[in-house]
Amino acid sequence: xxxxxxxxKAYEFEGHPSLLQFCLDHGIELxxxxxxxxxxxxxxxxxxxxxxxAPARDRDSGEIQLNEDGEAVIQxxxxxxxxxxxxxxxxxxxxxxxxxxxxxxxxxxxxxxLLINHPLDCPICDQAGHCPLQIQAYKYGPEGSxxxxxxxxxxxxxxxxxxxxxxxxxxxxxxxxxxxxDEISKSGQLTIIERGVKNYPITPPGxxxxxxxxxxxxxxxxxxxxxxADFRFQARIWExxxxxxxxxxxxxxxNCYYWVRDNLVLRITPRANPDVNEFWLxxxxxxxxxxxxxxxxxxxxxQGDSGMSSxxxxxxxxxxxxxxxxxxxxxxxxxxxTVEDNWMLLQLxxxxxxxxxxxxxxxxxxxxxxxxxxxxxTPNSQxxxxxxxxxxxxxxxxxRIETGEFKGLYILEDDPVASDLCGVxxxxxxxxxxxxxxxxxxxxxxxxxxxxxxMVAETIGTFVNDSGRAQRVVPAKVIKGTNRTLMMQMGLxxxxxxxxxxxxxxxxxxxxxxxxxxxxxxMILKKLGVDxxxxxxxxxxxxxxxxxxxxxxxxxxxxxxSGVELSAIDTEVII
Length: 575
Hints:
Ubiquitin-like (UB roll); six-stranded mixed beta sheet; elongated
């Protein structure tokens, strides 16, 4: 197998990898700015320079020349090479800054040029603390500046579009943003204008940078030149906790990080997963961050109560409704809820002999783009169908509800009034139990019992995306009365895990009084005298993976952080 020697160590390789990517894959740090593995290689930042050589060969015989010690004579390129554009060949010898003063000096000089006109505004820059330029300047750059002249000034606080703001003075012309719009999103909405030290990215005349993937340029910008209009100046990287999870604005289940400070989600950024969303995230997945913080319930409530009721009182009322309705209780599952939540709903329906109508489909035809946006606006319709829960035929079930066939309605994390499954008038004749996220829920005023449910950023559970990939989520936020299962999944160093009213960052109003549905339903079942086993999301999912063929292998251990691909849906479901 061919080999390459990097800093004196031999590495085997296959195919024709680029040197920079090969080094990164093997944990060898090479500083760079313009290179991105999903885009073309411009080699214009010159920061990834290395010294490359190969064994010298005799021109006549083609044999490798040896020195007096019997070692191969290495013939180096006359100039340093950019590792991002260099394709590895067998027998090559590579020196990075670790073993070559020549490379070390070149990288220091390159950084000095990049920093000549760069503003010294790290204290007010959103990128500070996770800025590649800042980090590399400390590790590879000069200790000070020799530049004593007036810096070049460029436009500041330029709104390229509704979601992205440009500070042109910080730009180092890596062209990542322009290449993204040309090669990945293909909108062509960004270009480079001016020349030399005066150039910077901008939109063409009369064009707004409003494509549905515009905020990805913020993530790939190696400096603070491109910032989010929403997140700008809101928080620093070290003030927030980041939690790996998935997005729920559509059925793709793109991998992401939820960034939380003071128990508020402040932003959502992509998490690389080559099997789902690669490095990217649609703007629609990012802009829903406010739904985790605003219009959230203050606790459970009973119809007619002037304020919030206790969980105990609401559970008792739910049991009374379920007992009185019995087989005339209609259950509505949810493609917004986890697999574990929906499975628990099936157990509750079986316990009282009620009928499960299915889940409400939220398909917006034409919304999908064949990439990371889908027509299906829910994250778990596949999970429901794998449990044997079909989409609801709205006209059919609306007619059955309006004819008075049912005495009660149990709704899991959805809004049947807003979805036109039933009207407010028909609910007046029913006892309604509602698991809900937001106070804007149109079914909420008609609910006999309202039970606040935890959202994706507050719970543990499993979602199955449109391609049949099962992915688990862990809590990013703390809720009131957090149980032991949730607490064990929170990061041990989380400030909001150990907060007290005496901490200046602690705000009690940011803690939502809600519970995961996989915790609420067993509490109701227990009061009904039904002991449901298993309990807890991990054990529930273990049971599901062992009893339902289309979930085979979908354990928490197997899913990890990147998920697991499931087999085709089996129509025969074992509950």
